[in-house]
User: Which sequence fits this backbone?
């Protein structure tokens, strides 16, 4: 059975079809959620929320794009909403960093470059980080990203360019060290 037939059966309430769609796409959805959230627990939560939302709105899938593109646009939306919510909650917290145990993390466990790269990616504005992750990490084309984010292709390209420029600026001092 092909994916189009499976989607139709899932719309009609076929549990096996829903499970098959889930199994086919869960790994990639989780990877995207993990890259956006940077936290395994949050990524699991966002993955679950993305599938719940997608399956609730399966009748809205028009088939103009690939099912995976539609599902990943839902995942991006779920992640962005979740990250905004977590940011608002963090802003309300008191200075818990004073209580944390800095000795818990072993700096030798993570290479210097990897740590700096992750920090630089995390520091990107949300819109730039999203396009960077979708294009450079997940391998989507600008046309697919534009559709996911409901922006023009040129906007996707511009955001990627700005993300890369900000990463070059943030990591420029490492160029000689790793060249």
Assistant:
């Amino acid at each position: 059975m092909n994916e189009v037939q499976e989607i139709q059966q899932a719309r009609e309430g076929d549990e096996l079809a829903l499970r098959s769609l889930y199994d086919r796409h869960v790994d990639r959805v989780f990877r995207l959620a993990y890259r956006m959230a940077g936290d395994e627990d949050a990524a699991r939560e966002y993955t679950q929320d993305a599938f719940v939302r997608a399956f609730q709105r399966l009748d809205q899938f028009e088939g103009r794009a690939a099912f995976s593109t539609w599902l990943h646009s839902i995942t991006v939306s779920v992640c962005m909403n979740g990250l905004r919510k977590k940011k608002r909650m963090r802003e309300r917290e008191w200075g818990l960093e004073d209580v944390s145990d800095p000795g818990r993390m072993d700096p030798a466990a993570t290479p210097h470059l990897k740590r700096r790269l992750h920090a630089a990616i995390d520091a990107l504005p949300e819109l730039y980080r999203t396009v960077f992750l979708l294009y450079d990490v997940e391998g989507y084309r600008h046309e697919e990203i534009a559709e996911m984010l409901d922006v023009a292709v040129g906007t996707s390209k511009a955001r990627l360019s700005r993300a890369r420029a900000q990463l070059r600026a943030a990591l420029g001092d490492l160029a000689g060290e790793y060249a």
